[in-house]
Design goal:
The protein is built from six helices and five strands; from the N terminus they run ααββαβααββα. It is mostly helical. It has two domains: about 5-45; about 65-220, no CATH class. A three-stranded antiparallel β-sheet has the order 3-5-4.
Length: about 220
């Protein structure tokens, strides 16, 4: 065997050894260690931040929004919101497919429309009118000026699981009327599920809609 050929064989063998070692370290050992640490220290987050009901049934994730709609009627293309539940933000990221029927996720994304885009302005005005109409009940009339921004706009992902405390409280009268509950009790329920800013200064106060509706279901089940 001549020297150049022998040197090339040694280099090839060294490269293969490096490939095998790096594959083992970065492709097997490292993922196993990270997964083990995540499961041991952050199992709830590592497993999708699942939310369970009192009977242990998984009903969703606290990180992904869900819609609360009535079943589609014949000839109807867009479902109507089920007004006995607290409603989330407009959800451009929530669609339908044949795989995930629980979350009905199709895509995640915003409209990417400019603030002065006629299509966006039209959708915001329509959403505002719907919020006013849906949440105005006997003895309580919602004014357009009371409708917060998150009630008429989607988040960047379109899958925001949270709403503002203002939007949750605005829905309290309607939810109370639909479920035959005292308004103060529903308002207190919202307060109990309002989370503050992260670490006291990051983000805004928020209410997780899924957790709030689970608590509402438990409350109505007791009445």
């Amino acid at each position: 065997m001549n020297k150049p050929l022998g040197r090339n064989v040694r280099l090839l063998a060294a490269g293969l050894r490096a490939l095998l070692i790096l594959t083992l370290v970065t492709g097997v050992i490292y993922p196993l260690v990270v997964t083990g640490v995540a499961q041991a220290a952050f199992s709830h987050r590592a497993n999708g931040s699942e939310i369970r009901t009192a009977d242990g049934k998984v009903v969703g994730s606290e990180l992904i929004g869900q819609r609360y709609d009535l079943p589609l009627k014949k000839g109807q293309e867009t479902p109507q919101p089920d007004l006995k539940w607290f409603q989330p933000r407009p959800s451009n990221g929530l669609g339908t497919n044949t795989v995930n029927t629980q979350y009905k996720l199709l895509l995640s994304g915003a409209t990417n429309l400019a603030a002065d885009n006629p299509e966006l302005v039209k959708s915001v005005k329509e959403a505002q009118a719907a919020v006013v109409k849906d949440n105005s009940v006997a003895g309580y009339r919602v004014k357009p000026s009371q409708v917060p921004p998150d009630a008429v706009t989607s988040s960047g992902s379109g899958l925001d699981p949270d709403i503002s405390p203002a939007y949750a409280q605005l829905q309290a009268h309607r939810v109370a009327a639909r479920n035959h509950l005292p308004v103060p009790r529903v308002q207190r329920l919202v307060g109990e599920h309002t989370e503050g800013r992260v670490a006291g200064f990051m983000g805004e106060p928020r209410v997780n809609v899924l957790q709030l509706n689970i608590a509402l279901k438990e409350l109505t089940g007791k009445n």
